[in-house]
Amino acid sequence: MSARQNSLAIETPEGVVFSYELATPAVRALAWSVDAAAIGTIVYLAGKATESVGHVNADWAGALSAILFFVAQVGYGIVLEWRWRGQTIGKRLLNLRVVDAQGLRLQLPQIVLRNLLRLVDSLPLLYLVGGIAALVSRRCQRLGDLAANTIVARQRAFEEPDLEQIAPAKYNSLLAYPHLAARLRALAGAEAVGMAVRAVARRDGYEPRARVELFAELAEYFRGLVEFPAAALEGLTDEQYVRSVLRVIYGGAR
Amino acid sequence: MILDLRRFVASERAYWDELDALLRRLESEPELRMTLEEIQRVQYLYERASADLSRLDTFSTEPRLREFLEALVSRAYMEIHETRAPLKIHWKSVVLEFPRAFRRRMGAFRLSLAVTLVGCAFGWFAIHQDPRTKAVLMPFPGLMQSPAQRVAQEESAKSDRLKGVKASFSAELMTHNTQVTVLALALGMTWGVGTLILLFYNGVILGAVATDYITGGQGVFLAAWLLPHGSIEIPAILLGGQAGFVLAGALIGWGGGLPRAARLRAVAHDLFAIIGGAACLLVWAGIVEAFVSQYHRPVVPYGLKIAFGAVELAALSLFLGWAGRE
Fold first, then answer.
1. What is the DSSP string of B166-203?
2. Phi, psi torsion values for B312, nearest 5 degrees
3. Is 90 exceeded by the pLDDT of residue B241?
């Protein structure tokens, strides 16, 4: 079994790297169950529609029903993924999208191929083959994805940087010393700042003791970079100090 | 040095929004042709967003903004760096692409045909050695009686046994045969083993039925029964097998230095053309099987049915062999 990836990184000719967050088999199964329900509804409605034809000619109604059932099953994924650029109803609801594994535009033959190969992926029942393939594959691909060179990725929407959460715009005693704040911004390492951001974002999930120890270590690191006057630090816990530091770094000196 | 994120977002947001709006237009209208100025603007905005992403990677660790910029750059990259022409549905080129793809992958078709013929030979051998194997090799109730009995029964029928169900029967044949053909393609993902087994099994049934009828002295009936639809249906299933072997070849990658993803990408268009063409053939075969093949002498003369099947096979061979040649 190859090592599973959570994301697929693509480097552009300009040297910029971007990544797709891969959808897990569980999320894909949820999207599929929504799509199965949608196909069931389409088939039901088509059945109702052909019933009216049955009053005129039962034979033609039967033929129409068989063909519509087949077309709905095969065509649902193909038509929607083509029209909605890699999305079906289930994928839309769960913010997923089929994308080319090289990051290029999805082509119709790729969509057709990945959907036709559902015939094998769905064997023997409930997508067992496809599910196992997705579980063991490095990029969480079922057989149809492997053949069509596609992946299913989580779609991301724009979210403003959450500065209020990590560094609220309250009175900040460190900003009373703009020259020291500027020095702190210049010296703080990206890795340590990243750790501080994550620590603040997850602070409510830590054990109380671990939380105190973690912020003490972070505060010690930042204190070692720049020494603020005692007046600026008076009454600040280590955690408050770290959040004030992040405010200085992300919010700029005022 | 760490970015002042607020200032950074405030200064760049307008460019990101503009790029997002242009990309939305492109995504919602695949046929859209932009002016030169618009293309240059997209290129500029893409490069600017890429540079922003680069700065963010270098100077900042704010994860949500990076995720957003990555998504924006990936969408723009998709539009700008795609060199494959978008597939346009021009019926003439779509129709001609099918025989061209067939000829490009002739080796896989020969393999598909060879496996089926080996299956036929096996079916012939088994029935020839022990006619009792018929029950195992041809598990269809309609074929269990002796060929002479069946022919006598069909030729003396006073009523149309398919009356009132011809269209439904035809639809069932179309969908079932299309599923078998698509399965032959899809089983290519088993490195071709599944495709091989499916084609071999089809060949065994075909060989067993043919041997049973020919040795029973009913060769003409067999030809008149099978040729009208079989001259299209059997090649269509062989085409499914061809597609399966092409897929298997790309998966295995004998003799090529390309990575697997590149090999699969290289065959995707041909697979699409071949399987699409085979599906269309099966629609025709389904109609013929329900409306023509099931009628025998004296309703339809055998000579006429055989000639009809021969003309279909010749037309199909001509189409696949010569249509779209340059």
1. HHHHHHHHHHHHHHHHHHHHHGGGGTTHHHHHHHHHHH
2. -60, -45
3. yes
First to last CA, chain B: 62
Query: Quick check: B180 and B240 in contact, CB under 8 A?
Result: yes
Please say whether the beta carbons of A139 and A28 come within 8 A.
no
What residues does each domain of chain A span?
A: 7-154, 163-251
How many interchain CB pairs under 8 A, A with B? 184
Pick B164's closest partner by Cβ from A59, A110, A113.
A59
Contact list, B2 vs chain A (CB under 8 Å): 185, 188, 190, 193, 249-250
Taking the C-alpha atoms of residue B185 and residue B239, their distance in angstroms, rounded to an integer, is 9
Residues 6+ apart with CB under 8 A from A137: A2, A145, A146
Query: CA of A22, closest CA in chain B: separation in Å?
Result: 13
For residue A72, what is the nearest residue in chain B, using CA coordinates? B175
Condensed to tens digits (0 to 9), the pLDDT of residues A173-209 reads 888 888 888 888 888 877 788 788 888 878 888 888 9
Complex ipTM more than 0.90, yes or no:
no
Q: What single DSSP character describes residue A152? A: E
Which candidate, A98, A130, A84, places its Cα nearest to that of A20? Answer: A98
Q: What's residue B9's pLDDT?
A: 81
**A residues 200..239 contacting B (CB < 8 A):** none
Q: Domain coordinates of chain B in residue numbers?
A: 5-81, 91-322
Asked if A136 is an interface residue toward chain B (Cβ–Cβ < 8 A), one would say: no
Amino acid at B122: F
Whether chain B has a CB inside 8 Å of the CB on A190: the answer is yes
DSSP designation for B258: S
B194 inside 8 A of chain A by CB = yes
Q: Is B135 exposed, middle or buried (0-12, 13-18, 19+ CB in 10 A)?
A: exposed
State the pLDDT at residue B89. 58
- A120: tokens are 């094998």
The C-alpha atoms of residue A72 and residue B27 are separated, in whole angstroms, by 25
A162 close contact with B: CB closer than 8 A: yes
Highest mean pLDDT among A2-11, A43-52, A89-98, B8-17: A89-98
Whole-number pLDDT of residue A251: 67
Q: Which residue has the tokens 């492109």?
A: B26
CA B201, CA B204: separation in Å to the nearest integer?
Answer: 5
**A40 against A19, higher pLDDT:** A40
Q: Does B79 touch chain A (CB under 8 A)?
A: yes
How close B212 gets to chain A, by Cα (Å)?
32
Provide mean pLDDT across the span B92-118: 93
* Min Cα separation A238/chain B (Å): 21
